[in-house]
Amino acid sequence: QEQLTESGGGSVQAGGSLRLSCAASDWTYGSFCMGWWRQAPGKEREGVAAFDSDGRIIYSDSVKGRFTISRNKGKTAVYLQMDNLQPEDTATYYCAADYHTSQVCFFAVASPVVQVGFFNNWGQGTQVTVSS
């Protein structure tokens, strides 16, 4: 099990921006599904954005055009630039990674509910709070 460490959460007003980072320690995997998921209080965990095993980017419909995912060349870190944040973006954001096919990775991002057991590797989470 790889260790994923997130950073960069915080509190902003609506319309503001934040950048999240996720670093993987002792990374030994090649191609894999890696990205960001979030969970608001009282709600299910949902997908935000991810790189699939072929390097393609997947976004959930709720963040398209506002969030941008990127990664470093060594594929050991992923970032999430969040612009035009809205109160409904308030949640704990988790980085996750695992060996999944592109199709499964797409499902993990697009699905409104993602079980924790779907990924073997999760970060501890970082809180993002957006006030109106």
Characterization of this structure:
This protein has one helix at residues 102-110, and strands at 3-7, 10-13, 18-25, 33-39, 46-51, 57-59, 67-71, 77-82, 91-98, 121-122, 126-131. The model has no long low-confidence stretch (mean pLDDT 92). Strand 5 and strand 6 form a beta hairpin. The longest helix is centred in the last third of the chain and has 9 residues, at 102-110. It starts with a strand and ends with a strand. The strands form two sheets. Strands 2, 4, 5, 6, 9, 10 and 11 form a seven-stranded mixed beta sheet that branches. The chain is mainly β. The protein is globular and about 40 Å long.
Helix/strand class: mainly beta
Average pLDDT over all residues: 92
Order of helices and strands: EEEEEEEEEHEE
**How much helix is in the residues?**
under 10%
- Counting DSSP H or I runs of 4 or more residues, the number of helices is 1
Low-confidence stretches: none
Please report which band the strand proportion falls in: under 5%, 5-15%, 15-25%, 25-35%, 35-45% or over 45%. Answer: over 45%
Q: Which value, in Å, is the CA radius of gyration?
A: 13 Å
Report the span from N to C terminus: 39 Å
Indicate the overall shape.
globular
Largest sheet: 7 strands, mixed
Please report the total strand number as a whole number: 11
